[in-house]
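User: Predict the structure for this protein chain, please.
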Amino acid sequence: MIAPPDRTPLPRTFFDRPVLEVAPDLLGRILVRTTLDGPIALRLTEVEAYDGPTDPGSHAYRGRTARNAVMFGPPGHVYVYFTYGMWHCMNLVCGPEGRASAVLLRAGEVVEGAELARKRRVSARNDKELAKGPARLATALEVDRALDGTDACTSDETPLRMLTGTPIPSDQVRSGPRTGVAGEGGNGDLHPWRYWVANDPTVSPYRAHVPRRRRS
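Assistant: Here is the predicted structure, written as structure tokens:
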């Protein structure tokens, strides 16, 4: 008999570690989004690590701005950014404070509140696609910039909480190049910092960076 996932909140010390330790360890953990309509719980199956000062793919590579300020703050907080003028993406800040490292939540399996996620992801063909990709994940969980800076390490009924869940055994974790990252930051030999659960159907497909064409 398979034991149910641990619903204990993850402590801040979990995130107060180097980002390359935290990222693969997030797989199998449970993210709970509390909405006005009820909770949605997500088991994380795919993430990407970003290490600010040494990582050309990171939003914080060139320093602190109003947009990325949360990345420099205490570990265990949520960093939400808006991209391509239409999508939000969600990250979890890692320590130590001031380092500006974070883990992008790329995909997961909705394990509770699927009926609520379906209302927000009406184009999903099935439940495996509800949070298959970072923008889809944020949409399914109703995450936007209003949640930027939320503390995810608390036992209180906050909008976003990270629970212990069931960690994935290391032999079931895969790694490779990050999706859609340009230049050196997308080099899988230098930055194989995308981690996912092997053979999980909710993991998003890898796509190399494609430069955006300017309209003539």
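The chain has a mean pLDDT of 93.
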